[in-house]
Amino acid sequence: MSKHPVDKYKLAGVDRNSAEQIKISLANIAKSSHGKEVLSGIGGFGGLYKLASYTNPVLVSSTDGVGTKLLLGKLTGNYKNLGIDLVNACLNDVIVSGATPIFFLDYIAIGKIDQTIINQLVSGMNLACEDAGCALIGGETAEMPGIYDDDDFDMAGFVVGVAEEDELLNPNAINAGDSLVGIPSSGIHTNGFSLIRKVFDIENDHTILSKYSDTLGRTLAEEISEPHRSYVKETDLIRGKVKSLAHITGGGLIENMPRALPKGIGAKFDQQSWDVPVIFDLIKSEGNVSFIEMNRVFNMGLGMIAICDSSNVDYILESIPNSKLVGETIASTESEILI
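The structure assignment produced for this chain is given below.
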């Protein structure tokens, strides 16, 4: 009998059979997010998407990751939420231009292929894509021994959206005295986890994650694992009623608002006008973190800000549950953000 040749690549840490199996599994997961526009999905060299029904389309693209929130998945075993996080962090960055997300791709680099972890990650991605009407059209899973330990991984997402050129949002139309409407976050979202790990000393005591907190009404792990909220449906409801949108991510209101405003315009917020989730108060007190730093790191309960004419405020508040009038734009040569 002839012996099977030794799989030297597998001995070196790369299992091509596992990679092929995971490719088939992921293709099956992603199918449910595909509409008739998807001409080919996962498995080929590139995904094909037919862009139709647009007169003068502009493509809008963005890429993002989930930062050190990855370590939380490793500690809790909840990888599905990380997949949701990745998609929604990316989608929200294209809708602020007025675009509709149409397809998404992911990149996962891992020390050793773990089908359970990867299936959970991609299942979460597909769930978020389905919810937003966006196709999970492709991706790459790279087994990289020597770069990552067996149970370590990183990932990134890539999204493309589309808008008619004359429907792109125009921040230059903003004037001093325009209104700021805040749409609540679902909690921490995907920023500030290095600070959170430091504040709660998670690296030295993982058990704190599973302890029930009377303050939070659930465990710390459940609180900070809450997925990044998507605002695709909400912003679709207010098309034509807003001048600009700001996705409040790392940098908080202070660093993200100027990206949605023209030169010479700042913003003034009244933090008493919205409910700041208790997790932020807990981080502030436990870590002795200053008010300014909290507002530079976290979203503080507002995940999206809509800038609009005051005449459209009532429409937006009625269209989006729990949205609040949280401030107004101001004339400011330095584009100051006041909270």
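Interim note for the steering committee: The chain has a mean pLDDT of 93. The chain has two domains: 8-167, 171-338.
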